[in-house]
Amino acid sequence: MPICKREGFDLNQMEDKSDTFHDNDWVFCCYITNRIFRDYENYFRHVMAINSTVWQCEATGRENLTYEEALKSERAARKKMEQFKQSLRAPVLLVVEHARQSAMKTLNLMVAKFLRKRYFINEEVTVVTKKNIFYVVVAITPGKAKPVPSTEIYEDTDALQYRLKAVKGDASTEISVPFDHIRRKRLEFNMENLGMFIKNNVTRVDGILRPKPEAYKQYVTDAGISFASIFIGKMPRYSPSKIRRPEAKETSSKKQSTLNKYIVSDVSEESVAKAKEKAKLLAEEMERARLEKAAKLAVLEREKAEKKAQLMERVESECNSLLTKTDDLERCDQRVLPRYKPIVTLLPEKLLGDAFMMREFMHTYAGLLSGVEVFRQNLSFYEMTRALSAREVAGPLSDIILVLLGTVFDLQKEEEDDCAVSYMLGRYTAPSEPYISMSQASRSHYYSKRHFSFKINELPLDALTLSEVLRLHLLSSGAIVNEKAEKWRIMYRNGYASREDPGLELRLQHPHILRSLKNSPVYQLSFSDIMRVIRCLMSQILTYSGTINLIEERMEQTYKAKVELRTLIQLENRRLAALEMSKRKLTHEHHLACSAEELKNDPAKMQSLLEKLNKGIAELHAKSDTQHRKHEAQVLALHSQLFNFLVFLGMDRCYRKYYVLESMPGIFVEHSPDNLDTCLDQPPLNKPQSEISNQAQLPKNRRELRIYLLKLYGEEKSRKRAKQSLENKENQEHRINGDAEPMEVAEVEPLEDPTQHELMMCSGDRRNCIVHDHEQRQRWSYIYKAEDIDELLKSLNPLGHRESGLLEEISGLRTLIKQHVSTCPAEMLTLESDQQRNKFLSAMHSETRKYCEANFGLPEDTNLNEVMQLHLVDRILQFERDIYTGDLGRLKVKDMEKWRNDLLKGNYDPQIKLQWGPGGKLEDLAAAGSDHESHEDYEDEEKSAVPLGKYATQPYRDPGQYLGPASNADESVESADEEGLEPQSEAEMESLQAKVRNMAGALLQVEQAIGRRFLKPPYGMKKWDPKQDALKQECEARLHQWEVSLMESTSYAQLFLHFNMLHDCIQWIRSTNKSLCKVCRRGSDPDKMLLCDECNGGTHMFCMKPKMRSVPKGHWYCNECVKNLGLKNANDEKEKKTAAQRKRKFIVEEEDEDDTEEEDEEETEEQEEEEEDGTDGKSETSTHSSTNKLNERPSRRPRGRPSKKKRLASKEIEVAIVDHDDDGDEATEESEPLGSEVGDEGSVVTKTGEDEDVEENENEEGEESDDDKVCQVCFYDGSEIRCVRCSLYYHLDCAQLKRQPRADFVCKKCKTSETQRPRRRNSHVNGHDDDDDDRVEPPAKRSRSSRNSLRISLDKSARHSGSNNNNNNSSTNNNNHHRRSGRRMNDNLPLNSAALYDLLEQIMKHKASWPFLRPVLTSEVPDYHQIIKTPMDLSKVKSKLNMGAYQLNEEVLSDIQLVFRNCDLYNVEGNEIYDAGCQLEKFVIERCRDMQLPFRPSDMNDEGVAIC
User: I need a labelling partner for 446 at 20 to 30 A (CA). Which of 401, 792, 981, 1138 fits?
Assistant: First the structure.
């Protein structure tokens, strides 16, 4: 505080400071200054000086104060200055030193702005969201996606992120907080204490305000603080203020001038002349100077224009270089790309791309592929790995090829349905490829029709026949079609032509594959060749119209999504513009309202208007936020629709390809060995990374960049001045503050420039080039972390042709890609250690355990030809047993057991001389035939008018013989392929051919043993009629061609194909092992079934009309054979009267598996044919003994099965067989039923009710056991009541009683005075006109629906090979399990199978049935089986219905009801599955009501719904 140096204020000279005062001394005290005086004059002078002087506060600078006021102000200022934050003092002094300002006020404002925008390391702060908790700044980092400034000066400090650590509590826990969430204490920093601190610690040196040396040393130098240690980047640069020095005072005073020059008046003429001359010279000089000046200005203008033109040219050139895209390898501003994790799996690296493509294809087109359900709608990574690493016959590889090949066949059939396709031979006569191969491909189609009588796409297809069918398909690919089909393909398959067939290309480029398939299965090919085959099949699928339509639909959906996205963006922009307009309108209305005169003096109303304005704006923002969230949701949905995961993102500078797959999460990077160009002669050198970082900060818009460059490349003088100023600013931090030491500044090490190899750029040397030398490449790698994706985006060059597209694609789908790759199974893609490999192998075998019997129980390293041979032996032996035991034929050998044992041991002995083909003289015919087939032979073979036998004499020609000799290229490929098996030697090949021929001979013997009347078309008649010689010869000719092709087989796949063709063309329904009653279509009660000696058809004795009470003697033929073939029963002429009817005993088997339900006799012929196809394909074995008629041959007794039998009680059957007597007594007028009583005149003799009663009474003599208590209504035992008059037994249910009667029971017959005959029906039914057995089924043809279970036959074959072949019971059960059966829709039957099966089919096809089609898995719903103790699903109901597990309609409906009760118990109302169950149950209720079936709904639909 400056005080006046006035006398009387300081201590009196007379008074010494060391004077002491005693307690009794008189003194004068000044309480303002706390001073005491002995002398009054000194006291008075001191008080007057204080009170009469105007004081000023030294700390704040306040004036016109009293002494006391100034003192208080100074004390308060000192106190506030002490409150200034300690951690801010060093930054303040650093800023003061760098600012170099001369004005105190400017300096205060500059420092205050600097401190408000920054927080410093080790500074104690608070967080807005966490009150009363103090944190210390630990570190400062740039914001997300914020590059480092080129000057390393962070001007935009609001985007910085601060890492904080709590002062108290867990010190190890750090949080990252943005700038706007951090606060300082209010008293620690404000303008007052900042100004006082600066004022007390700053001094003026040469007119510039600089920190005091002692303060700078205390807070900065001694503390070792620099700007780099307390903040990120460098200190901001400030423009120093000009130093104003005081002007020197003029010592000499100016003298006043005189007026003499204005007073002189004497002027001579001479002087006037001189003056004129002088003026003239002056005018000339001025004109010359003006011209010179004009010339100089013109030169300057020209130079200025030239400089400006040069500057503009330079700017444009620089803009072009900075904004024009060029090839990536020619740029010199590349950054280092991140390193990716390599993919290491069990598959070879060169197969990874094809494997991923195959899996992605099957995942993308799952709805189009046939039979893809075998992979549960998606091929897993484990199945893909096993398919391409294991050698198995029935493994996942077979399923993959089956699905693809089956889809091709289905698409071919769809095309044939749309347009008739026929194959031509001589349409193109060009003697060059591919027309030669196209003509040869047509021969393959004729080969299939000639030797198999089917098209190639109709041949049976499974894992065993796959190799041969695949070979024929590939050989027939690209065949020449008729002109109409060719035009149709051009129109509907986008211009597709036969010469573009991928199979034809495979045939031309890799014929060794087709040659290998002739002798070996496809599973023995090298995995590279297998992938070529799979790629070929996938390419073929993509050429068909169905696939093209699907792709076009997806493209159309994508286009619509893009249009909708653009529309949404436009609508959002309009909405934002409307929002701004509404805000301006509200603001304008507010200003108008406030400008009224009456409101200017009313603050309350003004405040209410302001609140109203704020409320309106807040409502607008709230509504806008809601609409914006809705817009974002719609945009995200459209992005998801556009991002279908099947995305090729692009390529980077070194031609690496980036993919995103739907089937496998992650970004996959492929560095293929195919070089797209050659090494550069002079590859460009890359710029330093610092310069590239600075270049990244430049504007990206051409206009802005041009303005920036014009400022940068301005005039030379201004550039030098700017450069000098920049150097001065950079050197400010190194200046010395007075005599103090230089300030310490942290040094930043320069970045090292990466090499060309690290930059993934061309080096110019092909031997050491990462781009063009494929030996140095990592072929496959992947990215799955979000930070790796961000790093990739930062390193991509936006001005490179390839990387710019990649950057744009990833940036647009960035959010969706990150979400997709987050679930990447990295543990499957990185198998670098043995432990990881073993773990993966264990998981693979666990996940693919359904393929545990892929080699039919043989070890994994067994040769596949041996596997197929052993399985073929089992199949042939089982096939022969089925034929023999089913009375379909017998081998023509001396010792059948020896023949079987020799075949089983591998020492095949035919025991006879084999003959095959037309007349059994194939060798002679082959020698007599021509060496080359004519085109006419093949073409005429298609004409139905020409008998097929005409071409049976043509020599056999395999379609593969037209491939020609193996080329050197093919041999080199085979030798270079390390994955393939070693080629077989000639001895091994001869041994294989010998074994194949032996198996062919064995199959030939079995075929020749089959009775021709048991064959179906095309090898047999639809209905056997020996009178049709022409049709018989045609069938024999087809069978001869089958024999010729069989004996020419060279692989086991060909043998399996012939085996399946023969197996499917046998009428297995006529086998005695599978005889069903022609009336009731059931196979139960075998002891009561008679078999026809001609057709092996069975009929229950109690199903005949009238019922047959005893087994006839002699030959017995069914009604069909009697009617169609003219046969007569021996018993018809001998027996005139039948014996008394005995009590019937109904016996059923205890095992439900043996009770199979068969097709309805009233079904159409097409349905019967489909049923027989399914039955024949699924019932391969049946080892029951032959069933013979009673009393004729002991070996043809009624069929008996080794199962325990029991009687059926009435309570077990709620729907009984009612009025059997009615059916038995009905006589037809049209034909005479077999087994009826015939009178002397040949008329049918029927028995009245009285006769039956008499017979029953006669049969009741003896003991009355439970078995004797047979109900007279349903004829089942276990009756409960007995009539007191006639002594006949009845069930309570059959007598329509609910309980035992209290009085004596009298039946209805006895109640009437006259015995009533049962009411006859209006229409007579001939029970023997059932011709279901004789309806021959068409051969098994593949359809899309049948391909859904491709593995059924293989699974069954595996079970047969693993079990004892002599186990008759197991084979019978297997046959019955897979048989689709039906029943006549007759109300008298206890189970209406046909109606229930139709109901079940409708339920399963309903749109709401999807949750109930299969069992609930514990892996999907862990607690389901804890709540639901009795699970049930529709597939299980269907399976039980197929296997004959139900006997009553109520049992089937009860299980269906259980499905809905479980749904109601487990799910909550409003759940998606609950709603689906409720909807499906309503459908079931309606259908049951229409079909008059009893169904009790669950609680989901019990309200207002009556029981059906």
Answer: 401
The residue ranges of DSSP E strands in 418-458, in sequence order, are: 423-424
- Do 1381 and 1442 touch, CB atoms closer than 8 A? yes
Token pair 């739907």 is at which residue? Answer: 662
- Least Cα distance to 496 among 450, 465, 528, 542 occurs for 542
pLDDT digits 0-9 by tens, 406-440 = 999 999 999 999 898 988 876 666 678 888 888 88
Question: In this structure, what is the dihedral angle of CA atoms 963, 966, 967, 972, given to the nearest 10 degrees?
Answer: 130
Q: Which of 306-310, 331-335, 699-703, 1350-1354 is least confident?
A: 1350-1354
Rounded-to-integer distance, Cα 776 and Cα 1276, Å? 85
Q: Cα(759)–Cα(305) distance, rounded to whole angstroms?
A: 43
Q: What is the DSSP letter of 217?
A: I
Q: Output the CA angle 490-492-493, nearest 5 degrees.
A: 70
Nearest to 358 by CA among 546, 531, 544, 526: 531
**CA dist., res. 851 & res. 617, Å (int):** 68
1454 SS3 class: helix
Q: Which value, to the nearest 10 degrees, does the dihedral of the CA atoms of residues 31, 37, 40, 44 take?
A: -50
DSSP 1165-1230: HHHHHHHHHHHHHH-----PPPP--TTT-GGGSSP--SS-EEEPPGGG-SS----HHHHHH---SS
Please report, to the nearest 10 degrees, the dihedral formed by the alpha carbons of residues 1389, 1394, 1396, 1402 taken in order. Answer: -160
Mark 860-875 as b/e (b = at least 16 C-beta within 10 Å): eebebbebbbbbbbbb
Side-chain-side CA neighbours of 1316 within 13 Å: the count stands at 10
The single-letter DSSP state of residue 383 is: H
Long-range contacts for 428-433 (Cβ within 8 Å, ≥24 apart)?
A: 428/480, 433/508
Beta-carbon contacts of 1309 under 8 Å, excluding residues fewer than 6 positions away, are 1249, 1253, 1283, 1286, 1315, 1316
- Close Cβ partners of 503 (under 8 Å, ≥ 6 residues apart): 473, 474, 476, 477, 478, 536, 540
The arithmetic mean of pLDDT across residues 570-589, rounded, is 91
E strand intervals along 96-224:
124-127, 130-141, 161-166, 174-178, 182-183, 202-205, 208-211
| Two structure tokens written together for 836 | 């990881």
Look up residue 1397 and give its two tokens. 């099966």
Pairing of strands 202-205, 208-211: antiparallel
Compute the distance between CA of residue 325 and CA of residue 801 in angstroms, rounded to an integer: 6
Candidates 1082, 1085, 1073, 1024; CA nearest to 1176 is 1073
With a pLDDT cut of 70, the percent of the chain lying above it is: 74
CA gap 192, 112 in Å, rounded: 10
Write the pLDDT tens digit of every residue in 610-664.
898 999 999 999 999 999 999 988 888 887 777 765 678 899 988 889 999 888 8
What is the DSSP annotation of 1358-1403? HHHHHS-TT-HHHHHHHHHHT--------TTSS--HHHHHHHHHHH
**How far is residue 199 CA from its own chain's centroid?**
71
In sequence order, which residues have a C-beta less than 8 Å from that of residue 150 and are 6 or more positions away? 693, 694, 697
Reported as type and span, the H/E element at residue 593 is helix 545-594
- Could you tell me the two tokens for 937? 């032979």
The CA-based angle 843-844-847, given to 5 degrees, is 80
Distance CA 431, CA 1331 (A): 56
CB-based contact 358:384 (threshold 8 Å): yes
d(Cα 880, Cα 1001) in Å, to the nearest integer? 13
The Cα–Cα gap between 1436 and 1434 comes to 5
Q: How far is CA 149 from CA 153, 692, 724, in A?
A: 6, 11, 21
Residue with tokens 């059939």, as numbered in its chain:
413
